[in-house]
Design brief:
By secondary structure, the protein is α/β, with parallel strands linked by helices. The protein contains 14 helices and 17 strands. Helices cover about 40% and strands about 20% of the residues. The structure holds zinc ion (ZN).
Length: about 400
């Protein structure tokens, strides 16, 4: 297919060349990198681990076919490579406790469309899956394309996925959640032949921060999602660290006090029993019981009040931040991250959380992390609630999924 006669390339076709020659594989790699993000050739080489020469060859070839557009910048290497006449669209999903977020982007555009609805795993697999499929269809239609152009779906779920089998190894949260079967096949009926790439939602959020947020060019990145529950994902050299069973990064179940409250995981005194959103709301309600009629109904609401002049809410957030800082100090002494990003609802509290968490981290982690020209630091998520869906979208686009 060429565009000389006005025809447009099909992204799915370009990516599904059955040839497994190194040349074809490199071509797909470069194409995927540019679909994730328009970049200079130097950046593409860095991200794909291909040589400058290989990247330059592929770029020239695909520019001639008008798959790529090359413009701006100083000299060959500084020019920006973006997607040209190609039809394709990708989706990223984050399923939470009671929130479902879908992001969709055309591969030839940097504008991500997204939609959020207030239900998730607590409503049951069939319900949220049906809603999710409809949201993907609607958003794809909003981009001006049809689902026949859907390249891949990244699916972030609150569960641990066995990295070897792609099956669920543990539902990371409440035991009555119905997350059954094989996630890669959950959308087989709605989107036949579209690869669905599942992973833990915090892993995808970490990946999103690495590609589009504060984590760019950072070697070791820890992303902490602090919402109803608390989880984390981490990357070293751009690779998601999952561990053998996909359970790496379960910071919420780090024991902070072996004699503390029981946790839903069965253990005692986990970080989540101290800073989980539901627990924080409970703490405020207890403090005001009998005195205040207008009590916070959600973590979001609690944070709004903390930013205002509600002393109880502000102190509850401060103590939570302090506990998060202590947990981060323990994790940092093991993985020594260059950047820690805090996302989720609590991340949106900004300095109310980042300030005390940073102080506690500094007090409790090894000094060498801070007595350095590039010290370990904590930042608020750059992408907010879209870190997960955007990360899922990018990660799935990057998987070289060849039809069998
Ligand atoms: Zn626990």
């Amino acid at each position: 297919m060429t565009t000389q006669d006005g025809k447009v390339h099909d992204a799915r076709e370009l990516l599904s060349t059955r040839s497994d020659s190194i040349r074809a594989a490199n071509k797909r790699k470069v194409l995927r990198a540019v679909m994730i993000q328009p970049s200079t050739q130097v950046q593409i080489a860095k991200r794909t681990h291909l040589s400058q020469g290989t990247v330059s060859g592929v770029v020239q070839e695909l520019e001639a076919e008008r798959v790529f557009r090359v413009d701006g910048g100083d000299g060959e290497r500084g020019k920006r490579v973006s997607i040209g006449s190609v039809r394709g669209v990708a989706a990223g999903v984050e399923v939470g406790h009671d929130r479902l977020t879908v992001a969709v982007r055309r591969v030839d555009s940097e504008d991500t469309l997204h939609r959020v609805v207030n239900f998730g795993v607590t409503q049951g697999l069939d319900t949220w899956r049906r809603e999710c499929a409809q949201m993907i269809k609607d958003l794809v239609a909003d981009t001006g394309l049809g689902t026949e152009h859907l390249v891949s779906i990244g699916l972030g779920i609150p569960a641990a996925i066995d990295p070897r089998s792609g099956e669920i190894s543990q539902v990371a949260a409440s035991l009555d959640w119905d997350l059954q079967g094989s996630p890669p096949r959950w959308f087989a009926r709605d989107f036949p032949n579209v690869p669905v790439i599942p992973d833990n939602e915090c892993n995808f959020a970490a990946y999103g921060e690495h590609v589009y947020g504060h984590g760019r060019d950072r070697e070791t990145l820890l992303f902490v999602k602090s919402s109803a529950g608390i989880g984390a994902g981490f990357l070293i050299g751009g690779n998601i660290i999952r561990g053998r069973h996909g359970l790496a990064g379960e910071i919420g179940h780090l024991t902070m006090d072996p004699r503390g409250d029981f946790c839903r995981c069965g253990s005692r005194g986990c970080l989540e029993t101290l800073v989980g959103g539901t627990r924080l709301v409970e703490q405020v309600r207890r403090a005001y019981a009998g005195y205040h009629r207008d009590l916070p109904s959600s973590l979001e609401n609690l944070i709004e009040r903390a930013k205002g002049n509600d002393n109880v809410c502000r102190n509850v957030v401060r103590v939570a931040a302090d506990n998060i800082g202590l947990a981060l100090a323990r994790v940092s002494n093991i993985i020594n991250p260059d950047l820690i990003v805090i996302g989720g609802e609590l991340g949106r509290a900004g300095d109310l959380v980042i300030g005390p968490a940073s102080e506690t981290l500094r007090r409790n982690a090894l000094e060498g992390m801070f007595a350095h020209s590039e010290p370990t630091e904590i930042k608020q998520s750059d992408l907010g609630m879209l870190a997960g869906p955007r990360g899922a979208l990018a990660f799935a686009l990057n998987v070289d999924h060849q039809p069998s």
